[in-house]
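Hi R.,

As promised, here are both runs. First protein below:
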Amino acid sequence: MIETPYLLYLGHSNDAADIKTSRGLAVFRPDISVGEYRHDDCGLTLGLPRMDFAAARAAGARTLVLGIANAGGKLGEDLIVDALAAMEAGLDIASGLHQRLNAVPRLTEAAARLGRALHDVRDPRPDIPVGNGKRRAGKRLLTVGTDCSVGKMYTTLCLASALEKRGVAADFRATGQTGILVAGDGVPLDAVVADFISGAIEQISPARTDGGWDLIEGQGSLYHPSFAGVSMGLLHGAQPDALVLCHDPVRPHMRGLPHYALPDLAECLEANLRAARLTNADVRVVGIALNTSAMPEDEAIALCAKTEAALGLPTSDPYRFGVEAIVDQLLHDEPA
């Protein structure tokens, strides 16, 4: 178990996309986020109290979450130095980076000496089965995207919350580092060996007979040359009854690939439906989720309306405007 509350790490970051894990925790788990740690050259903030490690420990923090992303997911020297200082101040360390904390001798030696815990969130379970594609009881929704980091986790969490408020049983199934830290459980899908991706999703979203929904957090995009394999495995393992397509309308190109344009929404929808039909022939799309955080409100509202009219599907920015229309569509003619 990762001890809470958390101190959220921003470090030297100046790209908002690089702090999505820390930001996700601040948004969805403010109850266990006591403050933020950032260096003077960091131009970002989560709106939480800025604290050094000693002050955070005095305020009740138990774990420093290295909630940032960088190229290759490496633990650079600055991260290692900060993690060492945090342990000296009495904090455990949690990280979702690809390079493991437990693979850095300086960190493991300090943790052993100080009695601190190192939590590598991207370590998958050792007992993941190979997927079998057999139909299983229950109802499942999967968020898919035109690209990476377009709001799939935010959308999934908003849908889970909206269903619960209507008295519908709903469980968020996390597949990424941020979601796992928010939910306290899940599978770090991008760390799973390719042959086991669909089996990992079958494992975290097993048969259910209570009439409720599993809301499965999507990853990557079928149109992203780097990460489409994870997205395909998710589609097959989730065996979704419903899809919600997530999109960032102001993004100029695929993330990290300026030579690749974003796909057309209708084309992307059809590609995801075709892939999903391998394990659920009755899959349907129930809505479009736009990340309009970089747009003025009037433009965002107009774009949602335009997209809804063009595609004939309820469209919203889930975090900004809510998901009620998408939930209405989901519950209309839902599978038995």
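And here is the second one, sequence first, then its structure tokens:
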Amino acid sequence: MDTPISSTDAQVGSLPQPYLLFLGDTSEPAFAKTAFGLSDWAGDRCVGEWSCGATVSTGLPLLTPGEAVARGARGLVIGVANAGGFIPERWIAALIEALEAGLDLVSGMHMRLADIPQLAATATRLGRRLIDIRTPPHGIPVASGRQRSGKRLLTVGTDCALGKKYTALALARAFVARGVAADFRASGQTGILIAGGGIPMDAVVADFEAGAAELLSPAASPQHWDVIEGQGSLFHPAYAGVSLGLLHGSQPDVFVVCHEPGRRHMLGYPDFPMPSIEEVIDLTIRLGRRTNPLIRCAGVSLNTGKLEADAAQALLQAESRRLGLPVADPMRGGAAFKQLVDAALQLSSDT
């Protein structure tokens, strides 16, 4: 073979499962969101985790590549989503070790695996696959702005990495449990790995962002719901463009604001304070009305993972009273989450 086997196919059936999750040397849990997302939502497809000095953990067994292969692993997934989506030079030796142990590499980073000479040469020599998930489809059109049939819910955030994907997955599952036709639509690399398809919105050329969102959530039957994974934040100094394209193209009937209480500044941007939930609701409605004049906020999803149960419950109730909206933590469920689902599906009884 003269070139490494490379693939951009994001269909789950074609990916080398089960996975060993690679955490690199990550110390910030939010930057390991791919590993946590797969562990939480596709744990049956993960045999363990491996790192080269990481201080975060998914709780899966710590395995070397050789040990993971002995347990049936077929692919190493880079479980990190750092700012800029790059693969540091200091990780290369570990990734080569994984290839030599018999694992294909799966990455959701912006940097392509085959563009790293050492990995390309090793994959060529061993006949291993280098699979890049963060690759948009060809032929994305410019958005039309035309209304499409079906119903849509979009999760939006006060910042990055605080629960938009988890909220969308939990809502889609809750809709289906109620007998509502619904699909989770993945817009980022982790969601694509979980769902088996989607479009990595932050890898799409800017002029085609809204068009990609239209493709992601096509016309459907009138009672069908697409629950769309949000990206970034309309207030983010770096990623707001992706958020706006996704908002305009998805044309949501309903949105849910996602927030992590206690976070004071944008993740990785200490000079930029967090917007309030009210500011996010107001701006989302004003911008979203451009393509869906009837857009409305169903409520708020709070990531209370750092709080004890009693403190979390008290905060959810207090924020619901303050905002006059359902406020829930989807991962805790309960009556608060039921109210959020009720509010999101309110449109079904209005049409």
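A quick note on the second one: The two ends are 59 Å apart (CA to CA). Let me know what you think.

Best,
J.
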